[in-house]
Design brief:
The chain is mostly beta strands and 129 residues long. The chain has no helices and eight strands.
């Protein structure tokens, strides 16, 4: 597990590593979204800091532009989002996504204090199949 910056006690620190934009051939109007796998690694250190590494494989079909992930953050907890990486479904290579830019493919941004959104295709791009 990567070394992560400490945050306040028991606060979740989520690292999204995998985003697969693929699916099966469907009609032009139909949209589907499924999660073939979700894996979570968590480490609670001796000071009560919780570190979480989350890997999601997502399959889109249709005209989705991207996705969003909301995190539950309780009172007296501090949420810190470290980074986001997409694993290219064809090559298996890591693609580091760009924070703060939802106008580009592979861009992501925090919206509010506990939601991350990302872009997987431009509106002008063909739908996922």
């Amino acid at each position: 597990m990567a070394r992560l910056r400490p945050v306040s006690a028991l606060a979740p620190l989520f690292l999204l590593l995998a985003l697969f934009a693929r699916g099966t051939s469907l009609g032009a109007q139909e949209k589907t979204l499924r999660w073939p796998s979700i894996a979570v690694e968590a480490h609670l250190d001796q000071d009560g800091q919780l570190y979480v590494k989350e890997t999601q494989a997502m399959a889109f079909s249709g005209d989705w532009n991207g996705g969003e992930r909301r995190f539950s953050v309780a009172l007296q907890q501090h949420f810190e989002f470290e980074r986001m990486v997409r694993v290219d479904s064809a090559s298996g290579a890591d693609v580091t996504m760009v924070g703060g830019d939802l106008d580009r493919v592979d861009g992501f941004d925090l919206t509010g204090s506990n939601t991350v959104r990302w872009r997987s295709r431009l509106e002008s791009d063909p739908p996922f199949v």
